[in-house]
Amino acid sequence: MASSRDRQRKLAREKLDRQLARRAAAARRRRQIQAGVGAAVVLVLIVAGAAWGLGAFDSDPEQKAAEDVCLWTPQDAAANTNLKDVGTPATTGLPTTGVRTMTIDTDQGGPVTAELDLAAAPCAGASIAHLAGKSFYDNTKCHEITTEGALRCGDPSGTGLGGPSYSFYNENVPTAPEASPSASPPPGQPPTYPKGTVAMISNPPGANGSQFLLFFKDSSPAQPAYPIIGRITGGLDVVEKIGAQPTVDNGAGAKVKPKTDVLIRKLTVGEAQAAPAPATGSPAASPAASPSAG
Prior knowledge:
The chain is rod-shaped. Strand 6 and strand 7 form a beta hairpin. The strands form 4 sheets. The chain has a 9-stranded antiparallel beta sheet. A two-stranded antiparallel sheet has the order 1-9. The chain is of the alpha+beta class.
């Protein structure tokens, strides 16, 4: 009997030893698996960190190049029948350096040429180029000689309320000149809008569309509101001659309409090109603006 019980104890002990061995082996396998997973996670984090440091997760350069340069705000042509729908310019891939040459053929002589500054006002340059490509300005009138010494053009309706069915924000608006007892800027301070300046004008201010100003004399308003977009490079004498015309009532009680109609037969805009070196000693050569207020 004793021998039988010993054998049973021995068998039970061997069974327990086998169970403990299997449990130990399973625990070792779990630890190995966990260690392997942990190492893999660490490796992934190291690789991801290195890739991030090298810029692998940065935006694609082509995608960056496709970022919007300008935004065009839709305007309700049904609410304002003076607006004309000719589509909108592109928002991406627009030139932001150099100049475009704008050429205006009028029935008063010319042509009048201007450089549109794409570095200071890329959206204005893009808008005018788009509209010119749609013949938007052709056979339209410059409907106003402003009291600030500029010829106002670019509104097919001739009302001051016309334009395309989109608008864009101000660019390159000069800062207000220093206070002066007189209407003229202090000695040594250049005018805000030198003769020869090309600027946008809108109603309301800041909702630019198609209308622009050609300054035929220096102007320094107390609160500048017109974004400077370029300068006249040829035909300034034609603009001065138009500016010297007498004016009549425009139908709204303002005596600003040229007595003789001023017709833009055709307006064209060339491709972007490098900006030429500025001429020296000429007031009209470089109508500069302070950093944009718009």
